[in-house]
Amino acid sequence: MSQPMNSPSPQATLPRSQAEIAARVKALESIMIEKGLMTTEAVDRFAEIYENEVGPQLGAQVVAKAWTDPEFKKRLLEDGTKACAELGFGGLQGEDMVVVENTDTVHNAIVCTLCSCYPWPVLGLPPNWYKQPAYRSRMVREPRKVLREDFGYDVSDSVEIRIWDSSSEMRYWVLPKRPEGTDGMSEKELAALVTRDSMIGVGPTSRP
Amino acid sequence: MRPDATELGDARRRVEQLLTELPGPGSDAEQLSFNDPWELRAFALAVAAYHRGLYDWSEFQLALIGAIRRWEGEPEREPWGYYERWLEALETVLSGSGVLPGTELDGRTAEVMATPRTTNHHEAHREPVAIDPART
Fold first, then answer.
1. What average pLDDT does this structure show over A37-45?
2. Which residue does chain A place closest to B34, by CA atoms?
3. Interface predicted TM-score (ipTM)
4. Residue A84 designated active-site
């Protein structure tokens, strides 16, 4: 059903690939912004109202399940897309999700080097800063410093930091460490501790 | 609690008021769901454009109804997609008010599509792109 990308499409009903239609929406927004008819902030604002319909609470459920079910965690790290599908989470932009696990010695964080590839089905829309070139370039160059200075998040010097580049073919996200003092908590209680930033790798989980 | 939570709630109620008069899933805001980022973006763009006074909501409503009817009348239809019709309606009202002339959007879309294709962007990157080693 995909169209050659340079074919003219005067009729809106010509079948279009999802990539083309996503590009069309982006193009429309950029034209309106250039003409001074719209601001990104105005569109962000209305998107934000509905952001929670698709937000990171889904990823939080996946994380909480991985914390409580070792077999699920194993499957999640082996094949993120397949394991998320067990919970009914998936779809476009969720193909080839790779979940990277934080440990006592390794901290992971994600960037997209070119645009804003992001595991939409589990994290929702990427925040604006994630889409800024500054985040990407500095995060690759000096991640420890960016985490501390921009996000107020200190990663211990004894921990290696790995930065993963999401592309349209492979989208990374982070399985944070289960917080201390959460023994005996239910999956639902644990999910409430999982923040979006902790799954991007730029912030901690909440304290119980 | 975010400081503007009430304001957001008010904005949401205003948007939902608009949606009650629309056909499709929009008529029940509880059912509103987005399967892809562009859908939410197109949704927000239409609401924001209305708030900027670029068209009357009734115009958008009619355009959306028209787009859905046209899809229903096509002999060989593409698979159903609510937000495809939503985008079509948005393009219709923006063209109607002279904001979006002719083929400008087609041209820009091709530019957007071409951008990632000139890079290695759709290759999978299987190793960390950067490592900051432990220091102790």
1. 86
2. A54
3. 0.75
4. no
Q: Report the alpha-carbon distance of residue A40 to residue B78 in Å, rounded.
A: 31
pLDDT, tens digit (0-9, with 9 covering 90-100), for A117-172: 678 778 876 676 776 667 888 999 999 999 999 999 999 999 999 999 887 678 89
Q: Is the pTM of this model over 0.80?
A: no
Chain B CB contacts of A164 under 8 Å are 125, 128-129
Q: Does residue A156 carry a catalytic annotation?
A: no
Are both A173 and A70 inside the same structural domain?
yes
Q: What integer pLDDT is reported at residue A109 of this predicted model?
A: 97
Q: Is residue A31 part of a domain?
A: yes
Residue A42 domain boundaries: 18-51
Question: In a mutagenesis test of the A interface, which of B8, B40, B87, B90 is the best target, namely the one with the most A β-carbons within 10 Å?
Answer: B40
Provide the angle, in degrees to the nearest 10, between the axes of the packed helices B82-96 and B57-73: 130
CATH of the domain at A64: 3.90.330.10
> Total structural domains in chain A?
2
The stretch A8-34 carries a mean pLDDT of 76
Task: Sort A79 into a burial class: Cβ within 10 Å, 0-12 / 13-18 / 19+.
Answer: middle
A99 and A190 within one domain: yes
Structural domain contains residue A208: no
Chain B residues touching A170 at Cβ < 8 A:
124-126
Identify the three-state secondary structure at position B74.
coil
pLDDT by residue (tens digit) across B59-102? 988 898 888 889 888 888 877 777 898 999 999 999 988 888 77
Which H or E run contains A100?
strand A97-101
How close does chain A come to B45, measured CA to CA in Å?
5
Say yes or no to pLDDT of A9 above 50: no
Q: Are residues A42 and A144 in the same domain?
A: no
Question: Please, what's the largest Cα pairwise distance for chain A?
Answer: 60
Mutate to test the interface with A, among B74, B109, B120 (most CBs of A within 10 A): B109
**Domain range enclosing B60:** 5-100
